[in-house]
Each structure stands twice: as structure tokens, then as C-alpha cells.
Specification:
By secondary structure, the protein is an all-alpha fold. Helices cover 36% and strands 0% of the residues.
Length: 78
């Protein structure tokens, strides 16, 4: 079942982020980044850690989660 974007919590997105709070995505915390992703004010590509091999599964999961929530196969967010 597809979730509507409003029904996806920032915590659900946050659990797939690296949780480094490094600020390299131009957001102070990973939780803030999760909120921006849900508000379509950030792109997954802004997080450099999601491009690393150890986070690739989280990247894939987030792409699917955000795409399904928006009712699309792919989004401009990823």
C-alpha cells in the first residue's frame, strides 16, 4: 500500500539517513534534512554519505519511500 507523503513521518525518513549531523547537506541535522525532504525543499543527492557504498541500501530505500509517497516512479528529489 502506498503511503501519502503527509503520512510518512520524518522519523521514518531519518532512520535511513546516516545520522552524522554533519551539515554537508546545508541542514544542521539529519532530522532537519528528513523534514526538508518531506517538504520537497531538499534532494537526497545533497547528502554525500548516501552515495557511499555502506549507505547505498538506505539510499535505495529512501528513493522508493519518497517516490511511492508522491505517487510517482521517480522524483526530482532523488
Amino acid at each position: 500500500m502506498l503511503k501519502e507523503i503527509s503520512k510518512i513521518s520524518p522519523l521514518e525518513v531519518h532512520k535511513h539517513l546516516p545520522k552524522t549531523n554533519c551539515g554537508k547537506c546545508n541542514t544542521a541535522t539529519c532530522m532537519g534534512f528528513a523534514i526538508k525532504l518531506l517538504g520537497k525543499k531538499a534532494k537526497l543527492s545533497q547528502c554525500p554519505y548516501l552515495k557511499q557504498a555502506k549507505h547505498i541500501q538506505d539510499n535505495i530505500t529512501l528513493k522508493k519511500l519518497l517516490a511511492s509517497a508522491m505517487g510517482t516512479k521517480e522524483t526530482k528529489l532523488v
